[in-house]
Amino acid sequence: MKSRFLVVAFSLCALSACATSPSKTPPSETAYVFEAQSGEKVDSFRGVVTVPENRTDPASRLIDIHYVRFPATGAKPGAPIVYLAGGPGGSGVGAAGGERFPLFMAMREFGDVIALDQRGTGFSEAAPECTSEIVIPVDRKVAKAELKALLRQAAEQCGAYWRAQGFDPAGYTTVESARDLDALRAHLGARKITLWGISYGTHLALAAVREMGPRIDKMVLTGAEGLDQTVKLPSETDAYFDRLQTAIDREPAAKAAYPDIMALMRRVHAKLDAAPVMMRVPTQNGAADMLLTKEVMQMAASASIADPEGAARLLMLYLAVDAGIIDPVAALIGRFITPGAPESFRLMPLAMDVASGVGAERLARIEKEAETALLADLLNYPMPQLAGALDLDLGDEFRSAPNSAVPTLLLIGTLDGRTYPKEQMAAVAGLRDLTTVTVANAGHNLFMLSPQITETIGKFMRGEEISEREIIVDAPSFEPKF
Asked: Which domains are seen in the chain, by residue range?
């Protein structure tokens, strides 16, 4: 019965061009030779979709959404596959040219592959970066209330700056980006599109399920972030470190060095809380003094644990600080920030996170857990500190989980330190046609870790049964190397 149904469905699909890739070049596209960072080149097309900046404003100006389209190579291409970068703020075109380039090319078997620069990113970014007048002190400890107040002042200054420049921060929300996807679908001349996303890209995909669900063919997701998960639960961060310890314990030399990583980290935090250390941070113009506090160490940890390789380097920093050696931490911090510089923001990443926001009940839970959690509430800094800034909040209705029968493949890394396995499953709980594959020892960025991952995605795209629900990849060595 099932095979007969598939034959009939295929026949109907053929007659109606169901979910197919464009049969001709869409308007506004131009031929483009795309070059990856590896030096490989491929013929493609660059295109633009023009949409309102803020669809709730009848007088809204128009903005351009840019993309690169890699034409399908398969004999029977399906729906166009739209890549949704993470961040928020990542460039889909940039991702296509990086280490995932081979996967972008492999996905062409199943349809045109669209490397999308979401509104406010990559080729689609128009708003200038804003540098506020607010400087957060780095030569002393800053109380949580003061830090929150300073961040909000900086954000509001930037909101005023962008508005004066003609940009509407209220247009840079996940809902508007989801509606852009439907506009892109129509522009491509396709009945449906397939969404392929990572991290924030999955947040956008889940919002699109609500906005245009019947016009989504399939979804391939990893690092799923639910619509109410912009701010992660501190308790889940602690659970991540438990899983990391289990991985460390499998390696005798690493276990000897790190018999209890959470105890090591808490010890370092306690030392820095009692006696912060002034360090010399290298900058482009020389060096600057900065106080190494518990909170600075927690922020460094939060920025390092997405993948196990970063966690391995982080633990070496904790060993060093525990031994009174500060220079490695100063060098790391100097790569990302300039001590004493004013606070600066990009419009899209700031507005997207603030608008997705956090509900009152979840925020209360986060604040309670942060009192004792290893990294407090700093994993998503400057959220939740900026929740509600710029008068942006999509509300609890937006943050409710979507309910859908869109066929979805979810790949979950067991050592993902950004989007945690338990939370990922909660994020997709309303998806009724869900296939979940666990990638043991993988972190947040898992697409290129094993050929099995590419094969699994291929099976899903072909509609084949996926019998193997676990892929095992090698964990990095956690043995400290000085």
From this structure: 17-127+168-227+401-472 (3.40.50.1820), 130-166+234-343+355-389 (no CATH)
